Amino acid sequence: MLKEKIRQLASEFHDEIVAVRRHLHAHPELSYQEEETSRFVAAKLGEWGISHQTGVAGHGIVGEIRGGKGAGRVIALRADMDALPIQEANDVPYRSQNPGVMHACGHDVHTASLLGAARILQSLSAELSGVVKLLFQPAEERLPGGAKLMIEAGVLENPVPELIIGQHVHPPLAAGRVGLRPGRYMASADELYLTVKGRGGHGALPHDCVDPILVASHLIVALQQLVSRRSDPTIPSVLTIGKIESEGGSTNVIPNAVHMMGTFRTMDEQWRAEAHELMERLVDGLVRSMGASCEFKILKGYPFLVNEPALTERIRRMAEEYLGAENVVDLPIRMTAEDFAYYSQRLSACFYRLGTGNESKGITSPVHTDTFDVDEESLLHGMGLMAWLAAGTLTGV
């Protein structure tokens, strides 16, 4: 039985894939700098006899496994490879050897799991028909996003996949469990940059100045009203100003300028475009009414991520068969963003969460923290489930 063969191979390859993950974790590289990571992944694919192309959209790799039973369906599996600018605090043998860089978002697990799934699928290729495309993607963490660049490089062509599957670590779920949500799942993400320019001077003589701090404070409140008063309440939206700093200033000194940075996120492209126009008009009108000026830039980021409902329901059923129904859970909408969304806007897609936590081992830290780690038992399920989803889809299970 195919499912049992996959379980057996996942168990057989588990130690090897743990070693792969630990190597990747110890040698993290930032977005657009994944040179050694790419070389390591390519070497593994070559060692296992898997056809692949390197140098895609920078350091991306596209592998291909062709079933021995001839033509059939074409599907894609995706993993991201980049790390974050975080100094690791974990005291483990495989801790990051690159100062200030850490796999704090689990992309080492994603890459290792896809390598493990590829190893399994290659071992079973004689029993499969069709094609599995393996997308090892760079630069998920930074705009414009490696997914966008990979698509522009043609990874969804020759042959054209009918669907794509991806997974992401999720510390709140215990290893051995996964979570899914059909339909809209993750938000779009735009970056906001504002520089409010006034006229500085003595803090005791504000009438002689144009106070950019006061203007900025009004701007923050007004921008919040876009979400609270202008958006459809059925459309999830978030606007956050995450950083504000002045050029100089003191207890008795009004500065000349204030810089702000923030994010705007939503799950509707029409409202997203409308909100951009509203923000630009609001900022221009408000600052001029207060005698100031503002340089305002909206850096458009990833679109919202949508899981195709029928595909997601099918994957849920297959996950229940592989892991047990008690280990497959429903997930809420998330306002975080992922560049997998670019794929989901182009073809049927499912992006699910892989449990990696273990409270008894103290493995509970969230992603993007300096103590993030995973229960490596999750790799057994990460590679096995992904291989099962691919093989089962190709064989019509």
Structure description:
This protein is of the alpha/beta class and 397 residues long. The chain has two domains: 2-186 and 303-395, Zn peptidases (Aminopeptidase); 190-299, Alpha-Beta Plaits (2-Layer Sandwich). It is built from nine helices and 16 strands. Strand 3, helix 3 (107-123) and strand 4 form a beta-alpha-beta unit. Helix 3 (107-123) crosses helix 9, helix 5 packs antiparallel against helix 6 and helix 7 packs across helix 9 (377-395).
Please outline what is shown here.
The chain has 9 helices and 16 strands. Helix 1 crosses helix 9 and helix 3 packs across helix 9. Helices cover 36% and strands 25% of the residues.
| SS elements, strand count | 16
The arrangement of helices and strands along the chain is HHEEEHEHEEEEEHEEEHEEHEHEH
Radius of gyration: 24 Å
CATH architecture of the largest domain: 3-Layer(aba) Sandwich
Query: Structural class per helix/strand content?
Result: alpha/beta
CATH-assigned homologous superfamily of the largest domain: Zn peptidases
CATH domain topology of the largest domain: Aminopeptidase
What share of the residues lie within helices?
A: 25-40%
Shape, principal axes of CA atoms: elongated
**In this structure, how is the largest beta sheet organized?**
8 strands, mixed
Order of strands, main sheet, comes to 1-2-4-3-5-16-6-15
Given this structure, which CATH class of the largest domain is correct? Alpha Beta
Percentage of residues in strands: 25-35%
Number of helical regions: 9
Give the N-to-C terminal Cα separation: 11 Å
Query: Mean pLDDT, nearest integer?
Result: 97
Uncertain spans, ≥5 residues at pLDDT below 50?
none
Count of folded domains: 2
